[in-house]
User: Which sequence fits this backbone?
């Protein structure tokens, strides 16, 4: 039954677009059935700047994933990032009519809806409102206020804000590619889902996802997301610097960075040289690996220092805000040699490279456990977690039809029906009405928004 639950994660990045089709196996691990990649030509620094090219790239990636898996999928979970995203902290409260009644989901929803009414800058929209700690009357530091008595319910919120036009553009690209938008997830949250453990989130950890156009940061403490930020440059600026610094073409600069680059120039000796073929009969260029690493070091130091500034702004230096689990690096940029050592040197924090292989089923293709696919794996996991119950019901009914061609008697139907309704009830209660996330509300709101736009 679980094996028939199939979803697709679509990572619309600056360098590449990845479509990943997968399902959950009986052990709760992700079994990737197909993956498609396309060069991302219409996205710059995490935002769409050419709708037509982005639609073509999405179609190319999805077609490739469908051909590999032999499946046709029309509902996708998409990640959103880009330098237009910012986060703010906000406190709000509601006064309850009857303090003698216990606090329930309805009160929490009223409080969250009140935050959604915050006045934003023109053209901005609240994507995500996440309660952190609650306060009931004068009692502070409450993580779960449901079931308590009190007249005033207060909370601190982590609010993520983005440009309406950018969100609409991503939605338009997905729908124009013939796909249906199932969920939208903030990309640093998807990456965090794929590479961070529950213990790290509890202890306090900063995830730095170095992509092509942007570097995403997500900070967790006590199991709750505390801070998110998008730094508007990533691995592409390093390639650009190599290209300009050594007067070579972009393709060669990218290859140099991946094959010979290092974030720590001291590792290279002066006499280590790589020869680059010249263009159209020109003389080949000789580049010392030391000077190459110096260029990479300068840019990566800039990215890491920006991320570290955000970590300090969050309050890592304070007693309560200390991130015990340190830093986890992921994304394509995390593959640069000696990056871990450089980050530890700059920040003085424990660092590891985050691989999404923990959630992948045994026997998965080794290339899938690369940090490059962290966001795609996270989006796929999100898509599977948010699968609507009716999808499962369809599958339950399909199985007997394939295996049992003979008609089923009325008695058998009466025996099967209570089982199905029981399964439904279990799934509904396990989801919990109160757990209807901001994402579900945001996605349904976005769908209405896009339909009106049409």
Assistant:
């Amino acid at each position: 039954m679980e094996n028939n639950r199939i979803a697709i994660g679509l990572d619309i990045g600056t360098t590449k677009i990845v479509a990943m089709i997968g399902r959950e196996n009986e052990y709760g691990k992700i079994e990737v059935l197909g993956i498609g990649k396309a060069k991302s030509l219409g996205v710059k620094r995490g935002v769409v700047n050419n709708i037509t090219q982005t639609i073509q790239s999405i179609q190319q990636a999805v077609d490739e994933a469908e051909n590999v898996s032999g499946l046709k999928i029309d509902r996708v979970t998409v990640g959103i990032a880009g330098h237009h995203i910012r986060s703010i902290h906000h406190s709000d409260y509601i006064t309850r009519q009857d303090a003698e009644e216990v606090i329930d989901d309805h009160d929490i929803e009223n409080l969250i809806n009140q935050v959604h009414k915050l006045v934003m800058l023109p053209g901005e929209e609240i994507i995500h409102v996440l309660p952190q700690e609650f306060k009931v009357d004068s009692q502070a530091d409450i993580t779960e206020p449901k079931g308590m008595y009190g007249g005033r319910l207060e909370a601190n919120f982590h609010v993520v804000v983005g440009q309406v036009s950018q969100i609409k553009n991503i939605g338009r690209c997905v729908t124009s590619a013939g796909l249906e938008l199932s969920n939208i997830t903030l990309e640093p949250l998807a990456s965090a889902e794929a590479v961070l453990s529950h213990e790290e989130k509890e202890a306090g950890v900063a995830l730095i996802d170095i992509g092509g156009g942007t570097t995403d940061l997500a900070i967790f403490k006590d199991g709750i997301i505390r801070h998110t930020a998008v730094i508007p440059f990533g691995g592409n600026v390093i390639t650009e610097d190599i290209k300009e610094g050594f007067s070579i073409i972009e393709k060669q600069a990218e290859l140099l960075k991946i094959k010979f680059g290092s974030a720590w120039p001291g590792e290279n000796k002066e006499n280590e040289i790589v020869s680059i073929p010249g263009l159209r009969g020109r003389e080949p260029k000789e580049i010392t690996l030391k000077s190459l690493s110096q260029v990479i070091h300068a840019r990566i130091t800039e990215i890491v220092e920006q991320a570290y500034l955000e970590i300090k702004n969050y309050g890592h230096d304070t007693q309560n805000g200390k991130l015990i689990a340190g830093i986890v690096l992921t994304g394509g940029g995390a593959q640069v040699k000696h990056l871990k050592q450089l980050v530890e040197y700059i920040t003085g924090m424990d660092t590891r490279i985050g691989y999404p292989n923990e959630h992948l089923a045994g026997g998965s293709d080794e290339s899938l456990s690369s940090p490059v696919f962290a966001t795609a794996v996270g989006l796929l996991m999100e898509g599977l977690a948010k699968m609507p119950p009716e999808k499962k019901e369809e599958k339950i009914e399909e199985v007997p039809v394939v295996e049992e061609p003979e008609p089923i008697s009325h008695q058998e139907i009466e025996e099967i029906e209570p089982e199905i309704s029981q399964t439904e009830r279990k799934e509904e209660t396990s989801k919990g009405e109160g757990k209807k996330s901001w994402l579900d509300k945001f996605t349904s709101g976005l769908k209405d928004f896009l339909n009106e736009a049409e």
About this structure: Residues 86-165 form a domain with the Dna Ligase; domain 1 fold (CATH 3.30.1490.110). DSSP finds 13 helices and 18 strands in the chain. Confidence is low (pLDDT under 50) at residues 390-405, 425-436. The longest strand covers residues 124-136.
